Each structure stands twice: as structure tokens, then as C-alpha cells.
Amino acid sequence: MIQNSATTFAIPHSEHKLVPGAVPIGAADPNATLLVSIRVRPQDGAAPSASLGDMSGTPPRARHYISREAFAAQYGAAAADLDSVKAYASGHGLKVVESDAARRTVVVSGTVQAINQAFSVELQTFHTGAASYLGHTGPASVPAALGGIVESVHGLDTRPLAQPMMRPAASGQATTALLPAQVAKLYGFPAVSAAGQTVGILEFGGGYRESDVQAWFTNIASLPVPAVSSVGIDGAANSPGASADTEVILDIAVAGSVAPGARLVVYFAPNTDQGWVDAFSTAIHDATNRPSVLSISWGGNESGWPNISALTSVIAEAQALGVTLFASSGDSGSENPAEVSYPASDPGITACGGTTISNVSGTTFTQTAWSGSGGGISNVFPPQPWQSWANVPASVNPTGHTGRGVPDVAGNADPSSGYPLLLNGQSIGVWGGTSAVAPLYAGLSAVLHATLGAPLGFLNQNLYTNEGPYVFDDVTSGTNGSYNAGPGWDAVTGLGSINGTALNTALLGIGLPPALAVYDNKLFMAWKGMEFDDRIFFTTGNGATWAPQTLVPGVGTSAGVALAAFGNQLYMAWKGEGFDQGIYWSSFNGTSWAPQRQVPGVATSSGPRLTVDGNALYMAWKGMEDDQRLWWSSFNGLAWAAQQEIPGVASSVGPAIVTFDNQLFAAWKGEFGDPGLYYSTFNGSTWAPQKLIAGTGTSEGPSLTVYGRQLFATWKGEFSDQRLFYASFNGTGWTPQKQIPGVLSSIGPGVTTFGNRVFAAWKGMTGDQRIWWSAYNGASWAAQQVVPGVGTSTDLLVAAAA
């Protein structure tokens, strides 16, 4: 090995452990030519500031992702850094093959001799008994002047890293072959087109023949043939004729079947550290094909990866762009010792385990865990916040360590319920494996992207937040060797298989539930604009008609707003736009809105609620991101008091508050996937223990008003149930829930009391962004009416005036 001098910089993570049993057999051929990829720092020294959980509480349409062009401009490599690396490479006789600011990558080629000199290594050939690879001992290095520029180098170690996660039906194995579209129907995937979407498929060997794609979709699936194209990376290309061809055609068949109309782009790269880093960075930053979802059906035990940290940093860039990633969790169960597969274990990826489908009759079926489903506890990644409630166990290994649990979800993978395939125009039997699950959910992601009109982005936080029987088919029987399937999350099937339609409804949005106020003897209604319009609008009503909408100038929110009248003014509070989780407020004097101000030291991912009690304005909210604790503060007309926690309670949405029976009353949906409705009261010094409102449930949270001498609550049903319900509380008990007849909403209603009636307003059902309203006179609800000329993509806030 060439020794580093005091003027050189050892590149982080460039010293790789040898493959177990590898034996050096001599120096690499000095005249052989290699490709090397050099990753450089972001231009400002920092990647995007958003963490993986930032947008989980925001509906997809209200999320703000950065474009690939803007990402390159803001977070890509500086031209001067790229030039420095290129100049250094050229000075050592290396040819610059590619330079990409968005990928922060310079690809160079040259002889082994030149590469040895450029990176202060001595490349050798190592033999493992099954194959040979090039590698080196000790770190690679560059001059100290490049030390702050170069983050990592790839291509100096060519060991194969992963395997395709596919399995054929064993000889003599009883099979009931299914088709991907049939499984999608069983899983409740929306039967709509994914036209306009692009699914990226990463492959590390093999290829496909267009004739096989056409024959499979035409003759086997009886579906339109999808548009399929390929992108070659680091010298790899669509090269049919290898055993991995089966993996490629399986991925194309599954993704193309469940996402009709979507374009499929297959990225081919070498099965090396360099190939994997460059494949992910190429697909994520592909400004030509622009995939919104990637499927990865390859993987290998975490211990076999020489430089996971570099690949993890690339994968993390996908979430700022709104790209969703799925990877197969493996086909060998929990291994022995138990070890999980990478990249499925990466926190930025949704890991896909396997199930067995049987007893199919129409749309009913039986589902158990597949014994080959990879799963367990990561040795590399710590416990993740979005799994904090899921009771992820310690590893079964003697260390008993804790870590990120794998998988997150599962789907049909057992070859006994697998898919018939063909190659070279000939049947090759029935195939399965968790490699059939990643493209299944990648296809669903494309469909939901088309349905919602926005990319899903990082999905894990949403999946765990929306856990419940309406979103998942919980698989509770079966084992993968070291772990058993059971109720809730488990290390065999994760949360279970996804009900696509229910997930679609759940993703439509947790926004801000309404708040109440009385001001100037008028009804006031305020809302966030439609889809990507974060502006805030308001209108007034007299109980029969509504005035034209008016823009609240200079403010915006991604969640919605809250209103309350206090001290002869109307107050409004809201969460900031996009990644901004600060809480802002303003007041309206009947003529104009005051400039916005920020409530110091507080944050929320779903928005606040307001009410008045005595001589103070009160505000309550859910914490930011995965913090589901509930917080409150009061305002005396001059300043907000320090925030305080409502002890011992939590909500994935946030609370509604109102003054009832001379005390504060708060109600909320349970945490994560718990749809139960809970409430508590505050006597001025302490909050009472929470109580459950029996026989009710909601996925969006309630709204509250006082009507007569009773508390009146309204809410949307659980998960995919878009009906609206109401009940009242007399201080002792709740009346049974009743349905508001003939109306539907994907969010839920805001309510207030005005003119001896309860007024409710709501966004329409899925896809309908109009605002509707009705009034309740104590006996019945009036027929719903549309508020003319307005619309919203999130919740409404209705306030009555006084």
C-alpha cells in the first residue's frame, strides 16, 4: 500500500474490510482500465434541512418538494469544486467521463497504474473461492487541498454486493398462480390510470427483450403493453442473456400491471459499490425521465456492504424531491445469525416483506406470512421515530441490540401464489420472492400519485401514522425462522399488506380541524387555497348567503387556519408553509388584518386551534413531525405564555378546544393509527385524565361548538369512511353518534353556533375541493349547499360572530 504523507487526506469510509475468506492473488493488471466515481460536497456544505418526517402530517397536495433543477442549483456541487477534481484527475492521466452537479459526481477512467497513483492505493486481485474482485487495503487518499471537497470515492472495490430477490416455484410445489393485476384488485388498489407517471426500476444485471415484454402483457396478462426504456450507468446496459433476466421481466410485469399507463424506466448498473451509488444518484436526479418512485428488487446482508454511509446519503436526497423508494427485504427469512438486507433496511426506503395468498374467491382471500420473508432488526441503523409506537423488539441475536425494524409492509411473494413468466417467448414457470413486492407497491405509488395529483414522497412516516385495519391487512400467522408474525407490526410482514384505496383516502389529508369564534354578528369562514395554493382566504355569511372570498394578504399555510374572537378582534393562527412548522397569528379589526407575528418557541406539523376562556385566548396544537404530544398556551392580548404539555395524551392530528361548563374542553383523535376519540377538561390548573368517547372513531379529528347548554361535536368517520357524524355532551355523558345525512367529506367539518343553529362547513369527498355547508336546528340538518366560487385542498375553519 502507498503510504499517505502529511499533505494528503484519507477519504472517509474508503478502507473496506475484505470479503470473508478472500485471498490476495496478486497486483491488479496495471494496464487494465477502470471507472472511478468521485462524490464531492454540496456547494454550501449542507444537504437539504428537511428531515425524513417533516411532511408526514401534510397532505401530498400541500407538500412542497423541490424540483430537480432547483435541487441542483441549491444543493448540487459548486462548479469550482467540480473543476478542482477534474483538474486533479486530468493531472494524473485520468480521463473525465462525466461531471454532474446535481449528483455531485465526477466519473473518471484510467489505467490501474494511474488510479493507484491518483488515490494512493495499490489495487490487488482478491479471490473468494466463487469469484474474484479488485480491491485494496488501507484508505484511499487525495491531496489535502481536496480534503474538504471529496466526500467519497467509488470504483476502487469491485466486489459484487447483492442478489436479486426472486424465487421460482420448486419442482413439485403446488401452485395457484396469480397475476399482478389480480393481486392489486385483492389489495384494493384504485383501478385508475397512472398515465403521466414514471416508475424507475433499478437492476444490477441482466436485461429484457421487447418481444418478451409485449408477449407477456398481450398473451399472459391481457393488458396494454407499457412503454419501457432503459438507462445505462457506468458501462452497464440492457443486456439480456443472463440469469438476472428473470428478475428484470418480473419487475416490469408487476409494475406495468398495477400502474397502467405509467412509463417504466429500467436503470442498469454494475453490482458494485460504485454501481449502486451511481444508480441511485442517477435515477433520483434524472431530470429527463423524472421518476417519482423507484423499485429495487436486489439486496444483500448489511454486513456485506463496504460503504453503506455513502449510499444512505444519496438515498436521503430522494425525500426532498418527493421520490418514493421501495426495496425487497429478502427471500431467506431471518438468516442465521439473524441479519436484515440492505438497502431495504435504509430508513429512507420502504422495506417490502412477503406473504402467501391462498383461498382466493372473488375479492376474498387468506393471507399468511411467507417463510422466506426477510425481516429482523438492523445492525446499522438505530430505532426510527416513526416506529417508536410499533413495539419493535430487540434482536434475537445474542447482542439483543435495538435498531430499525424490517420490513415495513408486505405483499404476495410466495412462489406458490406467484406469477407466471416467460423469457425468449417461452414459459419459465411461476416466480415469486419479495422482488415481486417492491414493484407492486411502486406501481401503487404511481397510481396514487396520479390520483392525488402530487408525489407521495417519503412514505414510512405516513404508513405508521395511518396504521389500522382500514389501511392494512394485518398478517398475524407464520414465521420467517427467528421472528413470528402477530398482531400489529412484526419482523416478518411489517404492518401487513396495504389496502390501496384506504391509503389513498388516508393520504388525502390531515389538515387543521376548524376552530370557533363570534365576531361582529357575522359568520366567518377561513380556509387554505386549493392544491398547491397556500394562500389563506376568508368570507362572511349571514346564515343564508356568503360574501365573495377575500384574500388575507401576505400569509400562507400548508395545513389550514384557526379562528377565535378575543378583545373585540378576530384572531387567526396557522402553521407556516411547507417545511416551516412555526405557528403564526394575526388579528382582524373588522377592516384589515394586522401583519403576521410568530408565536415564539413552538412548532406543529398539523396546525393549532383557538378558543377563548375568560380574559385569555387559548391555543392548543400537536407537536411537530413525529411528536404526537399535545401542547397549549394562553395569550393575554400582549404576549403568549410559555407552552405547556397536556400530560399523558397524544394525537396524530391535534386537538379541538372550546369553553364549556366554565372550563376548557379538548377533544382529539388517538395517536398514530388509533381512530378513537378522546377528551379532557382543564379547570385552570390541571387537566383531567383523558376519557374515550365510546362507539366513535375518526381519522381526521373532531370539531367542537357549544349549542344550547350542551357540547356539540362533529367528525369524519374512520379512514376510508367519508361520512360525517355528530354527538352532544351534557357534562356527564355523550349521546349516541348520528350521521349528518347525505353528505361526504375526505377531511371533516368545521362547526360553530350562530343564530340558534349549528353551522357546519366541509371540503367535499375525495377529489371534490368545493366547500359545502349546512345548518342544524336542534332536530334536523338542512340540505347541503355549496359555498359559491371557493375551494380548498385541506380542512376548513368556520367561526361564528358575536
Kindly list the characteristics that best describe this protein.
single chain; 802 residues; alpha+beta; Rossmann fold; Neuraminidase; 3 domains; eight-stranded mixed beta sheet; four-stranded antiparallel beta sheet; 51 strands; 35% strand; disordered C terminus
Characterize the structure shown.
By secondary structure, the protein is α+β, with helices and mostly antiparallel strands. The protein folds into 3 domains: 8-41 and 77-154, no CATH class; 163-507, Peptidase S8/S53 domain (Rossmann fold); 523-800, Neuraminidase, CATH 2.120.10.80. Helices cover 14% and strands 35% of the residues. Strands 12, 13, 14, 15, 17, 19, 20 and 23 form an 8-stranded mixed β-sheet that branches. A hairpin with a 2-residue loop joins strand 19 (350-361) and strand 20 (364-369). It is globular, with a radius of gyration of 29 Å.
Termini separation comes to 82 Å
Q: What is the averaged pLDDT score?
A: 91
Task: Work out the number of β strands.
Answer: 51
- How much β-strand is present in the residues? 25-35%
According to CATH, what is the topology of the largest domain?
Answer: Rossmann fold
Looking at CATH, the homologous superfamily of the largest domain is Peptidase S8/S53 domain
Structural class: alpha+beta
Helix/strand layout:
Elements: E1 8-10, E2 23-27, E3 33-40, H1 68-75, H2 79-91, E4 95-100, E5 105-111, H3 112-119, E6 124-127, E7 132-135, E8 141-143, E9 150-154, E10 163-164, E11 167-168, H4 180-186, E12 198-203, H5 210-220, E13 228-232, H6 245-258, E14 263-268, H7 273-284, E15 293-296, E16 298-301, H8 308-321, E17 324-328, E18 341-342, E19 350-361, E20 364-369, E21 376-377, E22 405-406, E23 409-412, E24 419-423, E25 426-432, H9 438-452, H10 460-465, E26 472-473, E27 497-498, H11 500-507, E28 523-528, E29 535-541, E30 550-556, E31 561-566, E32 569-575, E33 582-588, E34 597-603, E35 608-613, E36 616-622, E37 629-635, E38 644-650, E39 655-660, E40 663-669, E41 677-682, E42 691-692, E43 702-707, E44 710-716, E45 723-729, E46 738-744, E47 749-754, E48 757-763, E49 770-776, E50 785-791, E51 796-800
Parallel strand pairs: 12-14, 12-15, 13-14, 15-17, 17-19, 19-23
Antiparallel strand pairs: 1-8, 2-6, 3-5, 3-9, 4-5, 6-7, 10-16, 11-25, 16-18, 19-20, 21-22, 24-25, 26-27, 28-29, 28-51, 29-30, 31-32, 32-33, 33-34, 35-36, 36-37, 37-38, 39-40, 40-41, 41-42, 43-44, 44-45, 45-46, 47-48, 48-49, 49-50
